[in-house]
Specification:
The chain is an alpha/beta fold and 253 residues long. It folds into 2 domains: 120 residues, TIM Barrel (Alpha-Beta Barrel), CATH 3.20.20; 109 residues, Rossmann fold. The strands form 3 sheets. A 7-stranded parallel β-sheet has the order 1-2-3-4-5-6-8, covered by helices on one side. A 4-stranded antiparallel β-sheet has the order 9-7-10-11, with helices on both faces. Strand 2, helix 2 and strand 3 form a beta-alpha-beta unit. The longest helix has 14 residues.
Length: 253
């Protein structure tokens, strides 16, 4: 079943939360005073949390807490206490970096979804499958993957994916997802990976859409040549039959 992409907004204070609600956000993410990679920014307090979640849920919105630092042994007791607070306050999800924290959350706060932070640096289907075994329900991919060529993994079986990328490209990808009934998006520079795992591919260059469609329609010498600025060869891998894309200058080596 297709899932509508979620409009998720950052919010560091009440003014931001109210603005997100007023402008149609489906959810917000925010940090607290501990275990937050942006402690120097404006953040909500633990005392704010129950009232904030009541405010969001009354408007049909969800709230995600960034719990995205590594947890050291002497911090485990405090981390457990904060997880219990998230459970009691009916927080919808914790965005985590620490693998141990992901497992602890399922024991201490079973009603709180676990989302993988971009700091977890997930860059491959194998990484996503590992995260799923830890109980991760959604992953924010590593920012290093946000390069010129983007592809959509619409039926990725391992996780729901968030797109960590520039606002303009996110808006474009969301519009494509809405039209195609997409439930997930991934950004990658690996065109061969796109050919093997994608149902639909969005090719981009410098923020401009080049082509969108099924891999056989989009991953053509003409479209790829426009993206990379060189002629390419498109053939099938001799063992797997998966489409294989090779720039001409590499093929001659």
């Amino acid at each position: 079943m297709a899932v509508k992409p979620e409009l998720l907004a950052p919010a560091g204070d009440w003014e931001c939360a109210r603005a997100a609600a007023a402008n149609g956000a489906d959810a917000i993410y925010f940090g607290l005073s501990k275990f937050n990679a942006r402690l120097r920014a404006t953040n909500f307090t633990e005392e704010d949390l129950p009232r904030l979640m009541d405010y969001l849920h009354a408007r049909g919105m969800r709230g995600y807490v960034t719990f995205n630092t590594l947890i050291f042994t002497d911090e485990l007791a405090a981390a457990e206490a904060q997880l219990r607070l998230l459970q009691e306050s009916r927080v919808d999800a914790a965005i985590v970096q620490d693998l141990g924290l992901a497992r602890l959350a399922h024991v201490v706060a079973p009603d709180v979804e676990v989302h993988a932070s971009t700091q977890m640096t997930l860059t491959s289907p194998e990484g996503l499958r590992f995260a799923k075994r830890l109980g991760v329900e959604r992953a924010v991919l590593a920012r290093a993957l946000a390069t010129e060529a983007a592809h959509l993994l619409l039926d990725e079986p391992t996780a729901n994916l968030d797109l960590a990328h520039q606002a303009a490209i996110l808006a474009l990808v969301r519009s494509r997802c809405d039209r195609r009934g997409a439930s997930a998006a991934v950004v990658t520079h690996d065109i061969n990976l796109a050919a093997e795992f994608s149902d639909f591919v969005l090719l981009m260059k410098q923020g401009r859409s080049i082509a969108f469609g099924r891999p056989a329609e989009v991953l053509t010498p003409e479209c790829l040549g426009e993206v990379f600025g060189v002629r390419v060869l498109v053939d099938a891998h001799p063992l797997t039959g998966v489409p294989r894309i090779t720039p001409v200058h590499e093929a001659r080596r």
